[in-house]
Amino acid sequence: MRRASTLASSVLSRTLATAHGGAVSDATSLSIQHRLLQAALYGSRTGNAHSQQRWFSPLFSSSSVKRASVGAAGALIAVVTATSLGQEVYAKESALPEAVPKDVILYQYEACPFCNKVKAFLDYYDIPYKVVEVNPISRKEIKWSDYKKVPILMVDGEQLNDSSAIIDKLSEKVFSKKKADLTSEEDEETKWRQWVDNHLVHVLSPNIYRNTSEALEAFDYITSNGNFSFTEKITVKYAGAAAMYFVSKNLKKKYNITDERAALYEAAETWADSLNGREFLGGSNPNLADLAVFGVLRPIRYLRSGKDMVEHTRIGEWYTRMENVVGNSSRIKA
Ligand SMILES: N[C@@H](CCC(=O)N[C@@H](CS)C(=O)NCC(=O)O)C(=O)O
Question: What domains sit in the chain, N to C, each tagged with a CATH number?
């Protein structure tokens, strides 16, 4: 009990530091965001079959996907991906086998938007990866690292930090692309990737933390999911609910958001406009910006906020195309 109250005060004090603009604000709020997201995701009951499968059994799903190689060009192979439900068919790009790193390990929180951004890239390009789920309170799984956030990606023994930097580095490795050789399409891609990091991710937290019912639904569920000890599970449920109040208010102030749902809808509409009639920002295939937007939205898509977003904006069709083209996870057993 004593340990529980110590944990509670630790979670709460980290959160209060956030609420008062302390130095740990982003790290703390995102840590708690992870817990909330994870809980709410697993608690989601009305998501479509595709997403349910992804979140409830992401590993080794027997393939409902038919893939047929339709030729190789340069470093890329186009692969046709079709779901067993006979949904739309999209060309999927894969790295040539010899360019794929042999040993990839992702240190992550299951529902962290930045981690999901990296996973969207790995899944889309069929790069096999193992996952180490980090305990967000002790972070003992990354004790060995000087960098204390997730995602951390180990690629054939090399440590890569920060989602966008990880994706840049992986793209270079797998596609031999240099940033200096940007075409105008890649310029657009860069601009929108920055929009994801500088704007979109900041709109997500206030929506997820919006009110006690959304938060409590999530925290109820989190007590039975995630990488937490027994004591932590009990503690996080109560300390987390209290913490949410402060985190949510602080984040709204920090990012100048008055109506969080309106801000989310506006971001979704802005993204829909950016497509300008194209299937993806990248044209007939997703580019890194498509993957970034999809990755950070994936954890919230089947929460109340994500459902509201799809119901009230034009982002839904693009999102469904992304689900189809990204396909099953390329995660392998650790
Ligand atoms: N800019 C980083 C942000 C990473 C980040 O803030 N991750 C959060 C989890 S969503 C984190 O690890 N926070 C530290 C903590 O939980 O203590 C990225 O894009 O990877």
Answer: 2-326 (1.20.1050.10)
Tokens read off for 100: 């794929």
Active site residue 124: no
Task: Report which ligand 1 atom has the smallest distance to the Cα of 166.
Answer: 20
Contact 204, 26 (CB under 8 A): no
Residue 289: strand, helix, or coil: helix
Phi-psi region of 283 (alpha: psi -120 to 50; beta: other; left: phi over 0): left
Considering only CA atoms, which of 36, 78, 70, 112 is closest in space to residue 297? 112
pLDDT tens per residue across span 49-89: 333 222 222 222 233 322 222 222 222 333 333 334 445 66
How confident is the model over 113-137, as pLDDT tens digits? 999 999 999 999 999 999 998 888 8
Neighbouring CB atoms inside 10 A of 30's CB total 22
Tens of pLDDT, residue by residue over 12-25, are 444 333 333 332 33
What predicted TM-score, i.e. pTM, was given to this entire model?
Answer: 0.77
CA-wise closest residue to 29 among 194, 165, 257, 209: 209
Q: Which of 42, 90, 107, 114 is catalytic?
A: 114
Q: Cβ atoms within 10 A of the Cβ of 78, count? A: 16
User: Distance between CA atoms of 239 and 12, rounded to whole angstroms?
Assistant: 6
| Closest C-alpha among 55, 65, 133, 57 to residue 94 | 65
Distance CA 329, CA 331 (A): 5
For residue 237, what pLDDT band results from cuts at 50, 70 and 90? Answer: low
Omega prior to 151 cis, within 30 of 0: yes
Contact 54, 41 (CB under 8 A): no
**Both ends of the chain: CA-CA distance in Å?**
34
Is the CB of residue 92 below 6 angstroms from any atom belonging to ligand 1?
Answer: no
Q: Given the residues 42, 107, 109, 280, select the one marked as catalytic.
A: 109
Q: What would the DSSP string read from start to end of 169-207?
A: HHHHHHH---GGG--HHHHHHHHHHHHIIIIIHHHHHHH
